[in-house]
């Protein structure tokens, strides 16, 4: 076995407690460790704190490096970060999609631009403070690297690494992946690290906590539009909703009726594996055409027309106009631009007069309209099937890639912190389809769907 002292490891030191303890453990394990702090953002005007958070982070990181006893270096990757992460964010929001900048930051910056910089300084590996585990096994054609969920179920961060390649993983280390957060804090206190009590970072990776609409308004212009509430009656007469219901009914094992509305579960409550197994007859699933699947994956679209009528108001009977009542919906407010909102969002709508919370169910970017629905059980919030375009399918384990026509059972999550969900995954010529055992709340275009086999994350793709 090689002496760890001959292996040079660059720890991406952020000034937070996780990367600090990762550095400490690597040093204790005898590796030749050095710290590299990267600055990815200059503009303090976009953060809620209004100051240069990175300067404080760098100061703490330097103190940690000194305490651990490792060399400290600094690199400015803000140009690459803006081009490869922030510009992508603006572009996606402009199209009405919701990107995940943290996933992009890992793929494009930490394990690409940063990795290259670390290698120039002589590093064999780059280590980070992610809560996930890596395991290397021997495959028929050489080593195969696996990403496993972190041991702390409350802090598993494997989702953020869902776009990494085998090459990137071959040079990656995750020293705290098998430790729980309270233990990380304890180790930091025990070693008297300056970051021991530092709060976990929030907001956009390396930008900080931002007011997203304000941040996006750097590039995307505000434009006032209508907020339309959609009533239940709309679905009774909608052709797409009828297709979804009849198709899902036809796939049921027991010949029963498909569930169309999610049972809302909070993001911090684990969902056990479906003990009853797949509710769908997989032979019937296999018989669906590619076009059937494509339509099954498409959400209901909204097209509610509002007509005006004249009326007289007040003692002077001043002539005014108002919208006629519409059984399908009502204009309930105004917004500053549909591109600033995302499916499933409930904050920032400022719409009163409802018993339950109001949620965004669709954003119409060309028409600049936001459609909303009341309550977690609104039909517009739930979907059972999603599609990933062939060009967007990424296998972390290329050796396990599915062939066209193949059907597998995986556990899937469609956003970070969401408990894993049981799903049937179908590979077709026109894309990968995920058919969930129970309808999902807030499936959002632009986000990453990630699939797991047990603890192992196998791949991901943009919804």
Overview of the structural elements:
- The protein is an alpha+beta fold and 463 residues long.
- It is 25% helix and 27% strand.
- The strands form four sheets. Strands 5, 6, 14, 15, 16, 17, 18, 19 and 20 form a nine-stranded antiparallel β-sheet that branches.
- A hairpin with a 2-residue loop joins strand 5 (132-139) and strand 6 (142-149).
- The relative contact order is 0.13.
The structural class is alpha+beta
CA distance, first residue to last residue? 43 Å
Individual helix count: 11
Total number of strands? 20
Mean pLDDT: 90
- Helix percent reads 10-25%
Name the overall outline. globular
Q: What is the radius of gyration?
A: 25 Å
Low-confidence stretches: none
Which range does the strand content fall in? 25-35%
Main sheet?
9 strands, antiparallel
């Amino acid at each position: 076995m090689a002496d760890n002292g001959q292996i040079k490891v660059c720890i991406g030191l952020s000034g937070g407690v996780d990367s600090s303890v990762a550095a400490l453990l690597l040093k204790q394990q005898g590796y030749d460790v050095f710290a590299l702090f990267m600055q990815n953002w200059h503009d303090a005007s976009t953060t809620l704190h209004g100051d240069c958070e990175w300067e404080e982070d760098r100061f703490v990181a330097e103190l940690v490096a000194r305490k651990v006893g490792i060399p400290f270096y600094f690199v400015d990757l803000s140009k690459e970060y803006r081009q490869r992460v922030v510009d992508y964010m603006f572009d996606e929001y402009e199209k009405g999609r919701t990107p995940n900048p943290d996933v992009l930051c890992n793929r494009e910056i930490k394990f690409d631009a940063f990795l290259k910089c670390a290698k120039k300084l002589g590093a064999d590996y780059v280590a980070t403070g992610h809560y996930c585990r890596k395991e290397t096994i021997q495959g028929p054609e050489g080593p195969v690297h696996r990403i496993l969920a972190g041991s702390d179920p409350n802090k598993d961060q494997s989702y953020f690494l869902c776009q990494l390649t085998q090459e990137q993983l071959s040079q990656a280390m995750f020293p705290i992946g098998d430790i729980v957060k309270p233990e990380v804090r304890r180790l930091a206190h025990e070693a008297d690290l300056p970051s021991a009590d530092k709060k976990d970072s929030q907001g956009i990776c390396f930008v900080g906590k931002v007011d997203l609409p304000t941040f996006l308004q750097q590039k995307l212009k505000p434009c006032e539009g209508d907020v339309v509430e959609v009533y239940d009656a709309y679905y009774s007469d909608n052709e797409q909703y009828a297709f979804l219901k009849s198709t899902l009914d036809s796939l049921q094992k027991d010949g029963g009726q498909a569930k169309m509305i999610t049972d809302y579960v909070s993001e911090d409550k684990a969902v056990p594996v479906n003990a009853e197994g797949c509710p769908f007859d997989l032979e019937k699933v296999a018989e669906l055409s590619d076009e059937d699947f494509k339509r099954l994956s498409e959400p209901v679209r909204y097209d509610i027309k509002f007509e005006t009528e004249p009326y007289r108001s007040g003692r002077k009977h001043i002539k005014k106009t108002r919208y006629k009542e519409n059984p399908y919906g009502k204009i309930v407010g105004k917004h500053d631009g549909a591109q600033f909102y995302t499916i499933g969002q409930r904050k920032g709508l400022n719409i009163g007069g409802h018993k339950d919370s109001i949620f965004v169910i669709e954003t119409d970017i060309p028409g600049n309209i936001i459609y909303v629905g009341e309550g977690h059980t609104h039909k517009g919030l739930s979907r059972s099937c999603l599609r990933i375009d062939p060009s967007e399918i990424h296998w972390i384990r290329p050796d396990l890639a599915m062939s066209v026509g193949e059907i597998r059972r995986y556990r899937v999550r469609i956003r970070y912190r969401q408990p894993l969900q049981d799903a049937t995954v179908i590979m077709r010529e026109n894309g990968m389809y995920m058919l969930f055992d129970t309808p999902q709340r807030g499936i959002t275009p632009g986000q990453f769907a990630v699939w797991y086999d047990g603890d192992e994350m196998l791949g991901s793709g943009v919804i």
